[in-house]
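Internal ticket - ligand job 375, XIL:
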Amino acid sequence: MKKLSLLILAGLAQLSFAQDMQLRKLIPNKNILIGATVNQWVVANDLGKPHYSKKASYKLVGERKHIDIECAIVPKEFNCLTAENCMKTEVISPEKGKFDFVLADQFMEYAEKYGMAVIGHAPMWHTQLAKWMCRDKDGNLVSKEELKKNIHDYIFTVYGRYRGRVKGWDVVNEAIEDDGSYRNNDFYKILGEEWIDWSFKCAMEADPNVELYYNDFSMAAPGRRATVVNLIKRLKSKGLRIDAVGMQTHIGMDFPKFKEYEKSMQAFIAAGVDIHLTETDISILPNPYTGADVATRFQYTPDKDPYKDGVPEKALKAWQKRYKDLFALVNKYSDHVKRVTFWGVTDATSWKNDFPIHGRTDYPLPFGRDGKFKL
Ligand code: XIL
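stdout (structure tokens):
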């Protein structure tokens, strides 16, 4: 009974907040979740935890005042949340056999307070990866058996803890390269392609009712598109479940070509999965790199940081048009697109200010530094 009333309350909260979402005017199909990623300062600030940055494992981008602005925006403008960092393996399990759920639990509490759907991000990923997953104490790769056990135990513990509360997990993140080859990360070095299948098998068994996603960047690249399609077919042929493909959609003003992006949407839909835009942001800056591999960095030069003091009207218009074209695709395939999540809440705290070049001023999100809607 108590559970039922909580569910009803959560539903009501979602309804009352969802009504005002400004993005809904641009993405009218109510079946499409409109999500944001939040950092741990937003969460702790909202929950009134006294030292909001004490447990933080990542440096705060932006300033304290921006966190207040974001706290006011999130419950009004979104109905789905992804954790920016606190559900990654290096945060949840820095040491083998030990788990630290403080930040992830807070994130769940925050999302549930506002009746938001929750996306689990990103357990199996070569970046921000718990060291023990693939390497022993001396830094050597672990055996096949040990890696399988590590993946299994991690997934069962974490998915198990949030069973019934997380809507879907990015089971595997960024396992494929632009040219369609499998990324030669530690998982792959040990298990070959099978590391992906094993992760999905564990995920499916750990929480039979949760949605399972494969997530990656530069999804418009024809090589990656073809391998993702093959992967979906392979998983399905083995009786494994994959519900959607996550197209990260960290994109720019001149990449990708939306024609290629649309071809990927069509290919994934034809392969029998839904589509989620999982990490949407459109950088307005000139970019030396079209990918989103966190380890790839470039030197700062002032010519690559032209809008420190604001964006001229013409550039803003062009940027708005990019979003318009992206949303046109979302709406065209709205029977299959189930979620559009933005990677951040406002420009102030966006990771794009530091990626792929540190210390720039970017404007990639629908909400500006002052909290105003820009689309
Ligand atoms: C980023 C976060 O936004 C940063 O705070 C962190 O320092 C690095 O990771 N693809 C992903 C996300 O799947 O998890 C990354 O998030 C951005 C690229």
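Auto-summary: DSSP finds eleven helices and nine strands in the chain. Strands lie at 33-38, 80-83, 117-120, 168-173, 211-216, 244-247, 250-251, 274-282, 337-342.
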